[in-house]
Amino acid sequence: MIVRIMGEGQLTLADAHFAELNKLDDELLEEMEGGDESGFRRTLGALLDKVRDLGTPLPDDALEPSELILPAPDATLDEVRAMLGDDGLIPG
After folding, report:
1. pTM for the whole structure
2. Residue 57 CA from chain centroid, whole number
3. Interhelix angle for 37-54 vs 18-33, to 10°?
């Protein structure tokens, strides 16, 4: 799957990693619902770091359609809320 982190670029990520990422996504949703700004910051950073660690960056000149778009590391709670689907940021 091709994943874009806003403001950074695209990575390819194996579907096998999404169960692990969904755990962080669920935690992020809980923190957002509870208004836990510091927890939200920590978990968003952990989620993006995990995607960077597990993914393989695409070349800067590659223009592939992104199947998943994640917020920038400095995104606000409101910006992330606007990006949420029924399953959170990560479907499944």
Report:
1. 0.90
2. 15
3. 170
Q: Is 88 left (phi over 0), alpha (psi -120 to 50) or beta?
A: left
Cα separations (Å) of 33 from 3, 77, 92?
A: 25, 10, 19
Torsion of CA 61, 46, 84, 3, to 10 degrees: 20
Amino acid letter at 65?
A: P
* pLDDT tens profile 16-60: 998 899 999 999 999 998 989 999 999 999 999 999 999 999 998
- pLDDT greater than 70 at residue 92: no
- Residue 5 phi/psi, 5-degree rounding, is -100, 120
Contact (Cβ atoms closer than 8 angstroms) between residue 80 and residue 16: no
